[in-house]
Write a structure and sequence with these properties.
The protein is mainly beta. The protein has one domain. The chain contains 4 helices and 22 strands. β2 and β3 form a beta hairpin.
């Protein structure tokens, strides 16, 4: 089994470097002499990181037309977080087993319904009550024996946190861009209200890559994407680019498995037969991270913080009039 390492706490350091760049040292995530600690392969590993300058240019994600509409919803300055997921595990507390950041609807949790979201407040402009959420990113600087011991002793009052192996300081995104983009081949139609979508696979490390959609890069390098954690040059921020499917079956707002009612377009941007193009949501999340391989996304324990597990969720709770504006901006080639 490949050796996975996390950043050591002070005093338990070993020398390390990556691709010739000076990097903080790594060591095993826990001290076996600590009572109750379990020295397990919790990840992430050095092999999960890549110098962004070594990623070939060319991949920029899902193709889109020029028109777009950006919903401005803040970056979760109010600290709306929980480890629920009302789309995948409705009616369950801690159903995600990792912590989500939320923007948009102020009431989103595991027990949310279409009706409760429609009645909720929002951080977005123009009454966009949609629910936008993704797993938090954490600094792993200083993670060591104390945190490992905590993760070995599950605690019900820490849902999605140390009891699940998700340790370290949560990083607040420096910016959150929620952009609805046009289709390069056809005009788009309105999303139905309460449309639910997911992108990526939170269990991709064990499920395989069929539904994986992780896209990482750095500011200044957005013409290249990678499924590994990017190591960015000084002054550059880490970016998570989360593209959602945008070809709707024209009937359903959800489906079993949450993946067949809205699918991704083909490589040329065209939607499959029997589907129609809707505005394509792209979330771009920017972070300032500690230098070196010292950060990780929250995950299910068995996923070991693999960067390929990055994912996000969305439920459309825009007023119909606002969605009409979105469609108009996109189809007219405007940037709104």
């Amino acid at each position: 089994m490949r050796k996975r390492l996390v950043l050591a706490m002070a005093g338990v350091l070993i020398a390390g470097s990556l691709t010739g760049m000076g990097r903080p040292a790594f060591a095993d995530h826990c001290d076996p002499s600590v009572q109750g600690a379990q020295c397990e392969d919790v990840g992430p590993g050095l092999e999960d990181f890549v110098d962004i300058r070594q990623v070939p240019p060319g991949d920029t994600g899902v193709r889109a037309a020029r028109g777009s509409f950006t919903s401005r919803c803040g970056r979760n300055e109010n600290g709306h977080r929980n480890s629920d997921n009302h789309i995948v595990t409705p009616g369950v507390s801690n159903g995600a087993h990792h912590v989500h950041d939320y923007v948009g609807n102020l009431t989103t949790n595991g027990f949310s319904t279409d009706e409760s979201l429609a009645a909720g407040g929002t951080t977005c402009r123009f009454g966009d009550r949609s629910a936008y959420f993704w797993p938090v990113l954490r600094s792993r600087t200083g993670v060591g024996a104390a945190q490992a011991a905590a993760s070995a002793s599950p605690s019900p009052d820490q849902p999605g946190g140390a009891s699940e192996g998700n340790v370290g300081r949560i990083l607040l995104a420096r910016s959150v861009t929620l952009q609805f983009r046009g289709n390069p081949v056809s005009r788009v139609v309105a999303m139905p209200r309460f449309l639910r979508m997911i992108t990526g696979d939170a269990k991709a490390a064990t499920n395989g890559g069929a539904n994986a959609r992780a896209q990482w890069t750095c500011t200044g390098f957005t013409n290249r994407l990678t499924s590994r954690y990017p190591l960015c040059p000084r002054g550059s921020q880490v970016l998570r680019v989360l593209d959602f499917p945008s070809c709707w079956d024209g009937q359903n707002t959800d489906s079993a498995g949450h993946r067949t009612h809205v699918v991704f377009p083909g490589a040329n941007g065209a939607c499959p037969a029997g589907t129609r193009a809707i505005p394509q949501l792209r979330m771009t999340l920017a972070y300032s991270v500690p230098s070196g391989p010292s950060f990780a996304v929250d995950s299910f324990p068995e996923q070991r913080h693999n960067p390929v597990t990055d994912h996000a969720d969305f439920e459309n709770v825009m007023p119909d009039r606002l969605m009409t504006t979105v469609v108009s901006c996109v189809n007219r080639g405007l940037r709104c």
